[in-house]
Amino acid sequence: VELVESGGGLVQPGGSLKLSCAASGIIPSRAVWGWYRQPPGKQRELVASIEQIGFTKYADSVKDRFTISRDNAKNTVFLQMNGLKPDDTAVYYCNARGLGFLYWGQGTQVTVSS
Q1: Residue among 108, 110, 114 at smallest CA distance from 10
Q2: CA geometry: angle 41, 60, 81, nearest 5 deg
């Protein structure tokens, strides 16, 4: 199974982007999906996650600005990012994990700059 992210790009501060992560195969519905990011020169960090029943978690730095959602039927997860700041600049990765499996995408670049 491969995960493919899309939707990254260059955006001005205050702008919005919507990232998508699609799986090439079947992801168990019980999987926890997550979005992570790795800013330049820093470690990868969790941005948001969503469980099968829809329970979500967010990093404090993105609460009230980012929204994670999933479409189990399409094996796809989304990250709506509003109010983007220069500190949000990073490579964004999605993953899907559960008992016995862990899949990562290749990442998509998000750059917030004027």
Answers
A1: 110
A2: 75
How high is the pLDDT of residue 9? 97
Return phi, psi of residue 43, to 5°.
-80, 160
Using alpha carbons, select from 93, 99, 110 the residue that is nearest to residue 21: 93
Q: Give strand pairing partners of 84.
A: none
CB 10 within 8 A of CB 111: yes
Handedness of CA 80, 82, 87, 89 (dihedral sign): positive
In the predicted model, residues of the chain with pLDDT beneath 70 are: none
Residue with the two structure tokens 């992570």: 36
pLDDT of residue 95: 96
